[in-house]
Design a protein that fits this description.
The protein is of the alpha/beta class and 499 residues long. It has 4 domains: 7-120, Cobalt-precorrin-4 Transmethylase, domain 1 (3-Layer(aba) Sandwich), CATH 3.40.1010.10; 124-239, Methyltransferase, Cobalt-precorrin-4 Transmethylase, Domain 2 (2-Layer Sandwich); 254-284 and 414-495, 3-Layer(aba) Sandwich (Rossmann fold); 287-411, Rossmann fold. The protein is built from 16 helices and 19 strands. The chain has helices at 23-29, 43-48, 69-81, 100-109, 122-129, 178-187, 217-223, 261-271, 310-322, 340-347, 362-372, 390-397, 414-424, 435-445, 459-466, 481-495; strands spanning 7-12, 34-37, 54-57, 85-90, 114-117, 143-147, 168-172, 195-200, 208-213, 231-234, 254-260, 277-288, 303-307, 333-337, 378-384, 402-412, 429-432, 453-456, 474-475. The model has no long low-confidence stretch (mean pLDDT 89).
């Protein structure tokens, strides 16, 4: 044990998309040294933890049960005793059947400072997402949350009086006992015509929402093949449908994302507002690549500095800060970029690109540079070690001196790769945002699941996929996150006969 003991934050992550976490929970997550997480945590939340933070998965893996509670508590105590700040991410709210209380007691007994950060409970959020309010004026004036996990013989002990209540009954972790729960309520006086619903939502692998009556809900749920985790709602509000009226053309569609956290965030920003659920199934980590000399040597003379990705921009300026380079030294240089996102990254550092072709391709950039580079100038490419040779080859063909400087490299985050495998079989679409992402995906996962439609961001990425994958796939018309979203949306509408 170190002289300084760390702490543990028991953070409720909410249910479903990452932006349902509280502001406080997100702030603490961004400060942690270790994040300990379970199943059904949005992968976007893991990306919010610091890059260097240790990630410890304690959920189900490869058909095995989740880690015993004693093991989870032991890990929390040991990590904190090592002086680390631990973010314990739990779905929903830690204290609503989340066993957060047991973890808090273990931490208190070990003398570990801890704090509980409330989250949106699945008892409220999952029904709400399906359009069911758990209370409503004139329909339900009370809410009762019951565990169904111990209800093998029907309702939990002492809970037979629930049948006499007029409020909303919400059962968590009770799908495997749905028939017994419904039967016990009927036997103790609940009307068979009482509205009921079973919802599997949030980040569940097989989303479903079944509405029926108490007398028929068990049979209807079996027919719909509803799978856990699921929430059972019994009462008048279960018959209501207050689903939002925003355009959710991709509701229920599951999209796998590949690439860096930044690219995944851009894809989420255009897919999730349309109702899609997203999973980061190949998380690429960007790491600086050492160069033989300091970056300042690259702009001693007039030349073009060329960036092909936002990652290159961020790595470049991060190194300049570390090497204490005065940015006024850049005044002798001109800047070229591929893509609006790369240009926006450059602008965030106070520099407007001198050149950004309308077509986000190496061919277009090479053609534009050929027209703009003067005889006394040369070109420095600041990019990934994994970049293709297409751009430098095109420039050299036109007699332009090129120096290809690798300032970063990309590798797959293997800590999350195992958990991602469990999600793959449920995907409707798989989005590839780079040729490198294609290679890394197949190295980790081996194959594309049957029935999953692949979508490529552009021609170079499509060529990489074609070399690995024989089946038909989609290629976005524009090389951008928006292009991928538009391609998915168009294909979905065609598949559903809406175009």
């Amino acid at each position: 044990m170190t002289e300084k003991t760390g702490c543990v934050w028991l953070i409720g992550a909410g249910c479903g998309s990452a932006d349902l976490i509280t502001v406080r929970g997100l702030r603490l997550l961004r400060q942690c040294d270790v994040v300990v997480y379970d199943d059904l945590i949005d992968s976007a939340l893991l990306a919010e933890a610091p890059r260097q933070a240790k990630r410890i998965y304690m959920g189900k893996r490869c058909g095995k049960h989740s880690a015993p509670q004693e093991e989870i508590s032991r890990v929390l105590v040991e990590e904190a005793q090592s002086g680390r700040r631990v973010a314990r991410l739990k779905g929903g709210d830690p204290y609503v059947f989340g066993r957060g209380g047991e973890e808090a007691l273990a931490l208190r007994d070990a003398g570990i400072p801890y704090e509980e950060v409330p989250g949106i409970s699945s008892a409220i959020a999952i029904p709400a997402a399906a359009g069911i309010p758990v209370t409503h004026r004139g329909v339900s004036r009370s809410l009762h949350i019951i565990t169904g996990h111990t209800a093998a013989g029907g309702l939990p002990d002492g809970a037979a009086h629930l049948a006499a209540l007029d409020g909303t009954l919400v059962f968590l972790m009770g799908l495997s006992h749905l028939e017994q729960i419904a039967g016990s309520l009927l036997e103790t006086g609940k009307s068979p015509d009482t509205p009921a619903a079973v919802i599997s939502g949030g980040n569940a692998a097989h989303p479903a929402a079944v509405r029926a009556t108490l007398g028929t809900i068990a049979q209807r749920a079996r027919e719909a093949d509803v799978r856990p985790p699921a929430v059972i709602v019994v009462g008048g509000t279960a018959g209501m449908d207050l689903s939002g009226t925003m355009d959710k053309s991709l509701r229920g569609v599951r999209v796998g994302l590949t690439g860096t956290d930044e690219m995944a965030a851009r894809l989420r920003s255009v897919l999730e507002p349309l109702g899609a659920s997203t999973w980061h199934v190949e998380r690429a980590l960007v790491e600086e690549f050492p160069t033989e000399e300091g970056l300042e040597a690259l702009f001693r003379d007039r030349r073009w500095l060329v960036f092909t990705s936002a990652n290159g921009v961020e790595t470049f300026f991060r190194r300049l800060r570390r090497e204490r380079v005065d940015l006024r030294r850049l005044s002798v240089c001109k800047f070229a970029v591929i893509g609006a996102a790369t240009g926006a990254a450059l602008e965030r550092h106070g520099i407007l690109p001198d050149l950004c072709p309308s077509d986000y391709t190496s061919e277009s950039l090479a053609a534009a540079l050929t027209e703009r580079v003067s005889p006394e100038e040369d070109v420095v490419l600041l990019r990934s070690q994994e970049g293709t040779q297409q751009l430098p080859a095109l420039l050299r063909e036109h007699g332009i001196p090129v120096r290809d400087v690798h300032i970063y490299t990309v590798r797959t985050d293997m800590e999350t790769a195992e958990t991602d495998k469990e999600v793959l079989e449920t995907l409707d679409y798989l989005a590839f945002s780079s040729a490198g992402g294609v290679e890394r995906y197949f190295e980790v996962h081996g194959a594309v699941p049957e029935g999953t439609v692949c979508v490529c961001i552009g021609g170079v990425t499509a060529a990489a996929l074609r070399a690995r994958y024989e089946k038909p796939f989609l290629t976005a018309a524009s090389i951008s996150a928006e292009g991928i979203a538009e391609t998915v949306l168009k294909h979905r509408r065609l598949s559903c006969g809406k175009i």
